[in-house]
Amino acid sequence: MADNELTGGARPLRFGVVAPLRTDLPTWRDQVRRIADSGYSTLLMPDVQQWQPAPGPTLAVAATLADLRVGTWVYASPLRMPWSIAWEAHSLSVLTEGRFEMGIGTGRPGIEDELRQLGLPVVTPGERLSQVRDAVMSLRDLDGSDFHTPVVMAVRGPKARALAVELADTVTFTAMPGDSRAEMMRMAADFRGIRNLELALHVPVVGDAVAPFMTRPDTDPAALRAEDSLLVLPSDPTAAIEEVLRRREEGGFSYFVVGANAADALAPVVAELTGN
To answer: How high is the pLDDT of residue 3?
Structure first.
């Protein structure tokens, strides 16, 4: 257990980038290296087959390109059997020498249509949550005493949050466009009152740049700013630094995940706040 989990002290800040392979391979390789050189801690992949190669082999390649952590953001539990998720996650921990983080959740909005297209059963939210539990428990069995693959859980409802209290190393709250800052901060405070682990923020909008693989393409940055939403950060480095520090102080958020289209714009922020 980390010292700050015991004491409640501020956690060091870190930053991740969701960077699916959407270009030719040499351009993506250069992007991965640039992300690492900018001080980002983690290169992340979504779990959407229409966007990219499968996350497992893509992350294994990314880990050979630069000395950074890699992870899923996030596995959708209904898309594969729990043992299959666990096997791939454990394999990535072995192949990256402990630099893999397994992000997992119950699935994004509209996943039911994808399941039908793939010929997979459309299961209830409760069954999806059971799949998450089974995947994490299978991963712990495979890790044994040699590994501890960090688990990042994307949660929202009370049952998902309760499972994260039990199993997760990091938690990100699945936010909706209408969620106010106060609502998200209250959710974070309630969670930290039970267990003070790492809290992550999924930030799909930086300035007016919307990461298409992190939110809906019709997302309105101005509307999010008007709502004081935590789904957006300023593009101005000075303002972004102030906002990141505010979110850590007020809500305990210390891990910020942005899209690859904003990685260069936030590089000065990452350098200032991480010392890289």
So the answer is: 42
CB 105 within 8 A of CB 153: yes
Q: How far is CA 54 from the centre of its chain?
A: 17
- Write down the H helix ranges in 66-199: 82-95, 111-118, 125-143, 158-167, 181-192
Write the pLDDT tens digit of every residue in 117-140.
888 888 888 999 999 999 999 999
- pLDDT band for position 153 (cuts 50, 70, 90): very high
Q: H or E segment at 64? A: helix 55-65
State the Cα–Cα distance between residues 161 and 171, nearest whole angstrom.
Answer: 9
**Class of residue 132 by CB neighbours under 10 A (exposed 0-12, middle 13-18, buried 19+):** buried
Report the C-alpha gap between 237 and 271 in whole angstroms: 10
pTM of the entire structure? 0.93
SS3 label, residue 210: strand
**Mean predicted confidence (pLDDT) in 238-254:** 97
- Residue 9 has a pLDDT of 67
The backbone region for 98, taken as left when phi is positive above 0, alpha when psi lies in -120 to 50, beta otherwise, is left
CA angle 254, 269, 58 (to 5 degrees): 70
Q: What are the structural domains, with CATH classification, of the chain?
A: 3-274 (3.20.20.30)
- What is the C-alpha to C-alpha distance for residues 54 and 35, in angstroms, rounded to an integer? 20
